[in-house]
Amino acid sequence: MKKLVLIGGGHAHVEVLRQFGRQRAPEAEITLVSPDRHTPYSGMLPGLVAGHYTFEQCHIDLQPLAAYAGARLIFAEARALDAAQRTISLNNGDTLTYDLLSINTGSTPIVNGIAGAMEHAIMVKPVAAFLKQWAALIERVRKGEAHRITVVGGGAAGVEMLLAMQHFFAHQTPRREVDYSLITDAPHVLAQHPRGVRALLEGNLMRKQVRVHSGLRVTRVAADTLIARDAQNREQPITTDAIVWITGAAPPTWLADNGLALDGKKFINENNYLQSTSRGEIFAAGDCATVAGAVYPKSGVYAVRQGPVLAHNLRAALNGQSGEALQTYTPQPRALALISTGEQHAIASWGPLALHGNWVWRWKDSIDRGFMGKYRDFPA
């Protein structure tokens, strides 16, 4: 019997488990490794912070899903991979052997060795740790111990999170006055989106009195201060009570020096079969990997679309098939982005097109609930 090990309960792996539950693989012993029982759906995280969703509405319970697929579930994290020996070491002291390995662990925020960032900033990933720190920040604000919140990261995720926090605190009773700042090293927020989308979100931030610091590169972080430098390399201190870090994607550190081919940013280098370019028995999906020769952002949208392809190819590989038996995955040249603005309102970004309104939020809400509905209420 072949051993299939799934590392991480990300957006692609939940679909793999669902597919293997619909059609069991009696020739395989499947093991899922995840640090937590509940895995978050990233598309609904700002809505959770804003207060529109409960924890249960935007998290997938891996335990019944794994049972549905006939998989063993181990609560742990990967710590080291020996690709030559086909073993993976976990932080609980266990070592797993595998015939096939699939990795879908997501990414971590880019810190780039900035002094004090890991010690003093609230990292948005991993989400479980972030939610604990978010709960602690809510208490600090309620007690009057935090009046200034600074978000580092001017992409869609950073803007969404800031506006979600602003909406949450604006609707608390009694209301607490909180000042918000957003820092980005780009010339403006949402640098990867078209001008129309940027204009809509910049107007939203302005109306909500968010201070936007563009073109600033954070160089040092303390408990109550950020030190940044502008384009002229002038130092600018920014005083704050809480720092939320939502920068671009960095690979998990344990992927380095493991015998796998990595790209220039240390993500797993894979082919269009979602298969490592150096180890055919290793597959990967989501933010931790990059399809060789393709240019696309690190976004959950791509991991969701990779799920069915990954499930098919893992089943084929378990059956000893390769080549034409495998399905190919080609990242779409553009993806629809639905960006929430705190309240039940959102902006749709598609190529040069920008649409906004409460109806966009309802559209996004319908898509998100539809995705989550696929991973609930499995037969015993």
Description of the structure:
- With 380 residues, this protein is of the alpha/beta class.
- It has 2 domains: 2-107 and 251-335, FAD/NAD(P)-binding domain (3-Layer(bba) Sandwich); 110-247, 3-Layer(bba) Sandwich (FAD/NAD(P)-binding domain).
- It contains 9 helices and 25 strands.
- The chain has helices spanning 11-22, 45-50, 62-69, 117-120, 127-142, 156-170, 195-207, 300-318, 358-373; strands spanning 2-7, 28-34, 38-40, 59-61, 72-75, 78-82, 87-90, 95-97, 100-103, 108-109, 122-123, 148-152, 179-184, 211-214, 217-221, 225-229, 235-239, 242-245, 249-250, 268-270, 282-284, 289-291, 337-341, 343-350, 353-357.
- The chain has a 5-stranded parallel beta sheet with strand order 5-2-1-9-21, with helices on one face. Strands 11-18-12-13-14 form a 5-stranded parallel beta sheet.
- α1 packs parallel to α3 and α1 (11-22) crosses α8.
- The model has no long low-confidence stretch (mean pLDDT 93).
Write the topology of this structure:
Blueprint: E1 2-7, H1 11-22, E2 28-34, E3 38-40, H2 45-50, E4 59-61, H3 62-69, E5 72-75, E6 78-82, E7 87-90, E8 95-97, E9 100-103, E10 108-109, H4 117-120, E11 122-123, H5 127-142, E12 148-152, H6 156-170, E13 179-184, H7 195-207, E14 211-214, E15 217-221, E16 225-229, E17 235-239, E18 242-245, E19 249-250, E20 268-270, E21 282-284, E22 289-291, H8 300-318, E23 337-341, E24 343-350, E25 353-357, H9 358-373
Parallel strand pairs: 1-2, 1-9, 2-5, 9-21, 11-18, 12-13, 12-18, 13-14, 20-22
Antiparallel strand pairs: 3-4, 6-7, 7-8, 10-19, 15-16, 16-17, 23-24, 24-25
